[in-house]
């Protein structure tokens, strides 16, 4: 396609020295009042994947949350914004006159360098332009709320998924259809570093499906999820102090911060375990995808006395190849949350309370753990005061795991292994109050641990602890 002559043109060659100096580089251009469409083209030498360079846009309100207009990472280099439509990942809306900023993020730049070109076009009429693909601003419809499936119970969902608003292939509607096909009650739509998907989710939710607008804070040194947010979070972090500021803002907004896939192939989490995050994605994609590393970090935190809530996410990106393999399928794994109703606030309150377990599929297996002392009973995530008692009665209720084993773990490690002999199975045991906590896992027979490192169990389900004080 031959493009018209751009209003602005930039070009250069990024080097590892540019990356060392700063992860982010900024290109400013002036937008006259009355501008109705802006197009941007960014091309760079990918050098067979050795270079990875991201792009985003801020308007005249500045390069901060007020001026945020979108982010497409390295998934898209053809961008357009106007009042009524925009490239997925970008926010349609009025185009204020003044100085705009293109942000370029240097994820990877190899020794040979990275030649690049950047063009911007300013159009006085929204019908003009380069013809880059867009989606129209949605009509904000009323969410259909029917109460036949609400009320206190376990709801099953997925805490990490993506759409074409970041680097996945499908529209939010495709994701909603997949969620319905998998029988999920809720799905967090966690596009990378943008919230442009949020306005589309309301009309796609219904009485049987809740889509939760979320953002995956995607940095070059680790990823984290924030659920139930329409507000863009500044992801430009390099140090643990930078990340601490993000977590502080998330807490100020009354939300939870969840460390994502803290394992070698995650990408890994490099900000350390001392930050005050609330949750950890202990299980991302199928168990065999190195989740034992995340489990180890989580166990280390529990051992230190931190009460970090374990959650799961498929990280579904809907490329067809992965779908054929069954890899990254929505609900692999499924996170179950005990909530008062199927609403965003109730689901997130259930997570905050730790009323959560994870199973490998929407169909289960399921595991519930309760603990009882002096006639008082609690569920996973809750705290039980022992009040002089030396022992706690712990009850595990398991569905759909016949032939597997129930593992009970305390602060000191594996405490009990119980063969599961029926489809609906119950085990009651006594645990010392000094154990700190008890949690349950459903584990495959050892003959099915193939492909995992020595001694690493293959999990079918994992629950949060009941805590004793
Ligand atoms: Zn991620």
Write a concise synopsis of the structure shown.
The chain has 469 residues and is mainly β. The chain is 14% helix and 38% strand. The relative contact order is 0.10.
Give a structural overview.
With 469 residues, the chain is mainly beta. It has 3 domains: 8-134, Jelly Rolls (Sandwich), CATH 2.60.120.380; 148-364, Metal-dependent hydrolases (TIM Barrel); 365-469, Immunoglobulin-like (Sandwich), CATH 2.60.40. It contains 7 helices and 29 strands. The protein has helices at residues 16-21, 172-181, 198-204, 240-252, 291-303, 320-325, 344-352, and strands at 8-14, 24-31, 37-44, 52-58, 68-73, 78-82, 85-86, 98-108, 114-123, 135-136, 153-158, 186-192, 210-219, 222-227, 258-259, 279-284, 309-313, 334-339, 356-359, 366-373, 376-379, 383-384, 391-399, 405-410, 413-419, 424-432, 437-443, 459-463, 466-468. The radius of gyration is 24 Å and the shape is elongated. The model has no long low-confidence stretch (mean pLDDT 94). The structure holds zinc ion (ZN). Zinc ion binds at residues 216, 223, 260-261. The site of zinc ion has 4 residues, from loops.
What distinguishing features does this structure have?
Jelly Rolls, TIM Barrel, Immunoglobulin-like, four-stranded antiparallel beta sheet, about 40% strand
List the helices and strands and how they pair.
Elements: E1 8-14, H1 16-21, E2 24-31, E3 37-44, E4 52-58, E5 68-73, E6 78-82, E7 85-86, E8 98-108, E9 114-123, E10 135-136, E11 153-158, H2 172-181, E12 186-192, H3 198-204, E13 210-219, E14 222-227, H4 240-252, E15 258-259, E16 279-284, H5 291-303, E17 309-313, H6 320-325, E18 334-339, H7 344-352, E19 356-359, E20 366-373, E21 376-379, E22 383-384, E23 391-399, E24 405-410, E25 413-419, E26 424-432, E27 437-443, E28 459-463, E29 466-468
Parallel strand pairs: 11-12, 12-13, 15-16, 16-17, 22-29
Antiparallel strand pairs: 1-9, 2-8, 3-6, 3-9, 4-5, 4-8, 7-10, 11-18, 13-14, 14-15, 18-19, 19-28, 20-21, 20-23, 23-26, 24-25, 24-27, 27-28, 27-29
């Amino acid at each position: 396609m031959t493009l018209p002559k751009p209003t602005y043109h930039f070009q250069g060659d990024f080097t590892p020295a540019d990356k060392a100096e700063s992860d982010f580089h900024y290109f400013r251009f002036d937008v006259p009042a009355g501008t109705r469409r802006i197009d941007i083209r960014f091309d760079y030498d990918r050098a067979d994947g050795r270079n990875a360079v991201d792009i985003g846009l801020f308007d005249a309100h500045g390069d901060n949350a007020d001026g945020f207009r979108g982010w497409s990472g390295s998934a898209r280099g053809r961008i357009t914004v106007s009042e009524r439509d925009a490239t997925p990942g970008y926010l349609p809306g009025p185009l204020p006159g003044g100085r705009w900023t293109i942000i370029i993020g240097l994820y990877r730049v190899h020794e040979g360098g990275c030649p690049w070109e950047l063009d911007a076009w300013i159009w006085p009429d929204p019908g003009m332009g380069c013809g880059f693909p867009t989606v129209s601003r949605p009509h904000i419809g009323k969410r259909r709320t029917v109460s036949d499936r609400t009320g206190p119970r376990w709801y099953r969902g997925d805490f990490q998924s993506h759409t074409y608003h970041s680097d996945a292939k499908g529209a939010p509607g495709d994701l909603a259809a997949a969620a319905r096909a998998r029988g999920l009650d809720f799905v967090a739509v966690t596009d990378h570093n943008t919230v442009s998907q949020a306005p589309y989710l309301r009309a796609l939710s219904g009485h049987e499906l809740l889509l939760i607008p979320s953002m995956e804070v995607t940095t070059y040194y680790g990823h984290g999820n924030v659920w139930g947010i329409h507000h863009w979070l500044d992801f430009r972090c390099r140090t643990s102090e930078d990340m601490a500021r993000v977590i502080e803002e998330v807490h100020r907004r009354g939300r939870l911060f969840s460390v994502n896939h803290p394992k070698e192939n995650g990408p890994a989490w490099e900000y350390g375990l001392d930050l005050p995050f609330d949750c950890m994605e202990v299980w991302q994609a199928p168990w065999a995808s190195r989740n034992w590393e995340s489990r180890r970090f989580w166990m280390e935190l529990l051992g230190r006395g931190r009460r970090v809530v374990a959650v799961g996410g498929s990280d579904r990106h809907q490329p067809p190849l992965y779908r054929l393999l069954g890899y990254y399928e929505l609900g692999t794994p499924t996170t179950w949350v005990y909530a008062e109703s199927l609403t965003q606030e109730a689901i997130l309150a259930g997570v905050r309370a730790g009323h959560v377990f994870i199973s490998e599929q929407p169909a289960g297996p399921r595991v519930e753990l309760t603990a009882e002392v002096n006639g008082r009973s609690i569920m996973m995530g809750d705290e039980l005061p022992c009040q002089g008692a030396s022992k706690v009665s712990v009850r595990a209720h398991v569905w759909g795991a016949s032939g597997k084993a129930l593992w009970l773990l305390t602060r000191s490690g594996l405490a009990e292994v119980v063969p599961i002999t029926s489809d609906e199975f119950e085990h009651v045991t006594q645990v010392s109050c000094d154990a700190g906590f008890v949690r349950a896992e459903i584990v495959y027979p050892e003959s099915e641990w193939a492909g995992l490192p020595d001694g690493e169990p293959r999990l079918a389900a994992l629950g949060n602890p009941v805590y004793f004080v």
